[in-house]
Write a structure and sequence with these properties.
Elements (H helix, E strand, L loop, with lengths): L1 E6 L12 H8 L4 E6 L12 E2 L9 E2 L1 H12 L6 E10 L2 H8 L3 E6 L7 H6 L3 E4 L9 H12 L32 E2 L2 E2 L9 H19 L1 H4 L6 H14 L1
Helix pairs in contact: 3-5, 6-8
Length: about 240
């Protein structure tokens, strides 16, 4: 996979993309990440990338010329999505991360200031993504979030091929509780079922815990989950145990 990032602050990416899962994925050539400074695509000697909005108002707006120039230079004749990171975009999700992980190449455009010239939205970008209902100083942190969520979906990026499939939201549910050594810590014990060696029962317990945790913490997610007959039985059993 190739990910191209257009930004006004390329130095922000050096630390996060050099470490952990992303750094290993780059070293293993599972993904290449190309950081492009939008200012390099300006035509004036001061490298101006923004201007005041027509009609008045506070703040500055990213000009269309350097963004179009940057995308044209990176994209060439290739066909790839051009994604603007903006609070106005569709909400990023695990499903969307998986969708993007299936692409060979993409461009992420980091918005800034009061936003971008509307002609960038209308005629340049193919998608707009928001990582949440809040406003950041720029799209760089949002791009890092998107890249991290996408890269971990790539085959070979994680130590175990099953790891990503067990993440919260990968099945529509929150992940079940996890335990490790020691078995007893300050009087708190690991659930006996996890020590039983009965893998079928362990899987049922984990599924039940995922259902319970999601219902308690994110009931909105439960409305979108297709429950099986076994799921309904697990929920009914947990409800009886709590009575």
């Amino acid at each position: 996979m190739k990910i191209h990032i257009l930004t006004l602050f390329p130095e922000m990416f050096s630390g996060p993309f050099d470490e952990s899962i992303i750094g290993r994925a780059v070293d293993q050539e599972l993904v290449s990440i190309d950081i492009n400074n939008i200012r390099d695509y300006t035509r004036d000697k001061h490298h101006v990338v923004d201007d005041s909005p027509y009609g008045g108002g506070p703040g500055m707006v990213l000009k269309p010329e350097p963004l179009f120039e940057a995308v044209d230079a990176v994209k060439g004749e290739a066909d790839m999505p051009v994604i603007l990171l903006t609070p106005q975009g569709r909400l990023f999700s695990q499903g969307l991360a998986t969708e993007l992980a299936g692409m060979d190449e993409m461009i992420l455009v980091c918005g800034h200031y009061e936003g971008v010239d509307e002609r960038v939205r209308q005629h340049l970008v193919t998608d707009e993504i928001s990582i949440g209902d809040y406003v950041l100083s720029g799209g760089e942190l949002a791009a890092m979030v998107v890249v991290d969520a996408v890269v971990r979906q790539l085959p070979g990026a994680l130590g175990s091929e099953e790891s990503a499939g067990g993440d919260s939201h990968s099945t529509g549910l929150l992940e079940y509780p996890q335990y490790t050594r020691p078995q007893s810590f300050r009087g708190w014990e690991v659930p006996e079922i996890l020590l039983s060696g009965d893998h079928a029962e362990i899987e049922r317990w984990r599924r039940g815990q995922s259902l319970k945790r999601t219902a308690e913490r994110r009931p909105d997610l439960m409305q979108r989950v297709a429950l099986s007959d076994e799921d309904r039985k697990l929920i009914a059993r947990m409800e009886r145990e709590e009575e």
